[in-house]
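Anyone able to model this chain together with magnesium ion?
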Amino acid sequence: VTERRILHVDMDAFYASVEQRDHPALRGKPVIVGADPRGGRGRGVVSACSYEARKFGVRSALPISQAYRLCPHGVYLPTRLERYAEVSARIHAIFHRVTDLVEAISIDEAFLDVTASQRLLGPAEQIARRLKAHIRAEEGLVASIGVATNKFVAKVASDLGKPDGFVVVPPGEEPAFLAPLPIGRLWGVGRKTEARLRDLGIARIGDLARFERRELEAIFGKNGGGLWELARGLDDRPVVPESDPKSIGAETTFGQDTDDPEVLRRTVLKLADRVARRLRDEGFRGGTVTLKFRYEDFTTLTRAQTLEAPTDVATTIYRTALQLLEQIPRAGRKVRLLGVSASKLAGARDHPAEQLGLFSKRDERRRNVERIVDQIRAKFGARAITLGSLVSRPAAKGRPRGGQDAEE
Ligand SMILES: [Mg+2]
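re: yes, here you go
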């Protein structure tokens, strides 16, 4: 049996690095991504930060206000997910030059199974080196890579070398590689398990590897067997190539909590427009529309509606989401976040709704209008035309205040 060769590729400080690459003046500076578009004191959380910012104690998921206190001279930027997704797609295209077995685990992280690629492209280590060089040369970005016989060890390896990491664990050397590392590195070891292991005098993975499987099962039940395997560097999970998305969604966190019905309506329209555009771009139609609603106290509700026929028309998604919004009890409470998504996706090409007679005449007309809008945008930029100008509505007042947008 040939040993599997798995790569874990993880981009270093991805969002911040893309910003530094796009804006050379930011290189070498503490860059914090996730800020309110209007300035550094917004209410978001840090979605990424450069290594220069980490020196000040800034980390991902820290509230921006706290980051600002730690690093007041940092450069605070709003998240530009569309831009990062674009760069991510190009990096994925580079991955696919060496194997079709690519499993994306986030926008900046993936597993690659290159076992079969070695026959044509040489040893896994060489493939990984070339990959790293191509990403640097073509995208100006740094990837940390771990090479091992399985996902778990490859992931630990890529992480260990960061930043600019390149760590190869040769077959058979997994237990020795893992032995000196703290047990917190094991998958599935949360704070509780870690505390219990420490009580037993187990601090490093090597300490754990000395136990018999049944001893660990006696202490940790079913999880004991998993711990025993990981401690020896055993992990037979396959790399599962990406499949079609399960849902396509967009959401907005308001710059200021609001109960203004006109702001809510316009936001639902904006989100529906983004979702529909992505559906059309990616060749899908959604059969179910879901509205996500977060109150100012963070309580979150979702309401879903299945459509008569799958759609990629913004107006249809908008009208459905608006009906869902009306079902949500508001009683004077303000809204912090709104999200719209489409799920039960069907490929537009596989199931042409028109041919099945499922697309209503009205949907078809709206769809044609939106196609024209797509073309205008492609030619003159996204801001050239808004769907709002095409959808009937009550008199408008004010625009939604600047908030934070995120895409699923
Ligand atoms: Mg990363």
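The first strand starts at residue 6 and ends at 11.
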